[in-house]
Amino acid sequence: MTPKQQEALDAVVKYGSQVKAAKALGISRSALRHRINSAKKYEEVDDGIKYAMNETGMANINAVHSGWIKTDDVSLYFRNETDSLNTNDIAESIRDVINGIVLCEIVKPPKVVEDNLLTLYPIADAHIGMRAHASETGEEYNSDIAVERIRTGMAKCVASSPQSKYALVLDVGDLTHADDNNAQTPRSKHPLDVSERFFYSLRCAITALASAIDCALQKHEQVICRVLRGNHNETSYLAVMFAIAERYKNNIRVTVEQTSADFFVHEFGSVMIAAHHGDKAKADRLVMHMADAWPDIWGRTKHRFYFTGHLHHTMMREIGGVLVEQLRAVTGKDSYASSHAYSSRSQMQGITYHKEEGEVSRVKVCL
């Protein structure tokens, strides 16, 4: 086993509990449990595999998926069982992230706001936790860079947007690059380039979204936040949503919508704003579903807008009286996108609507 895995086992014995051991080592409980589980996996593995690892100088059992063990007399092919998702571990990870969240400081509302205006701040495909190397993709990208992009992009958008009374901070999906520690997309199991273990990227996602809300509170009287599912984060978006709701639970100026629905819709005077990640239906179907699912809102409004993400490049179409906009992503290109010659630009926007006139201004910030 690796020195860190042995250190984790020794710390639990020395301090008597995982909580105290994690604190003494300066790591999260999730990181400690991962090291302990890896150490136990190494101890339980067949002696023949241990011998082969020792002969080749390998220490981390998680790096050994399968292979051959050969001697003068026999050849043996082996395959290690892959770790399956443990619902208790997932729940514990979510508790670790939410535990200790500091309630937001109450920010005084701005003195002057325009009651008839709402500004939408969509955050599309941030892919926090993705790792990109400049040598492959032309630019560096990791969780820390992603958080800084959202912070600076949001600050610039807010600074240049009108003093609208209402702000809508909308995560359009794929806020995190992975959904767990397996570094694969949840459904198709495509391998993902990740910058660190999922615990850290999840914490960064919560930090980034909270910073966006805090920024909006400086200028807008009321802030609505919605977190949508993406195809990369089909379950972990719920952890972000609950953590953000917990942080602002005592702030009457912030409303965090808590729902697992794939679709978002908001009515603002004669304006109808809808959103979906965009991975399960094309624009035409989304518009037809919009009219069918919310006929009352559809009937009361005359300016209708639909936002999607997923494909990372911009596209705008008018379908049946609805302006459908596919948003540019916050993230840069990963090695897959770069090697397939996909081109896109990173961007954030602030889009302001008037209750009766529809869209009246727009701010675009290149990241």
Describe what you observe in this structure.
It is built from twelve helices and 13 strands. 38% of the residues are buried. It starts with a helix and ends with a strand. With 367 residues, the protein is an alpha/beta fold. The protein has two domains: 3-79, no CATH class; 106-366, Purple Acid Phosphatase, chain A, domain 2, CATH 3.60.21.10. It has helices at residues 3-15, 18-25, 29-44, 47-56, 87-98, 134-137, 143-160, 198-217, 237-247, 283-293, 295-300, 335-339, and strands at residues 66-70, 75-79, 114-123, 164-171, 222-227, 254-256, 264-268, 271-275, 303-308, 315-319, 322-326, 347-354, 358-366. A six-stranded mixed sheet has the order 6-5-4-3-12-13. A five-stranded mixed sheet has the order 7-8-9-11-10, with helices on one face.
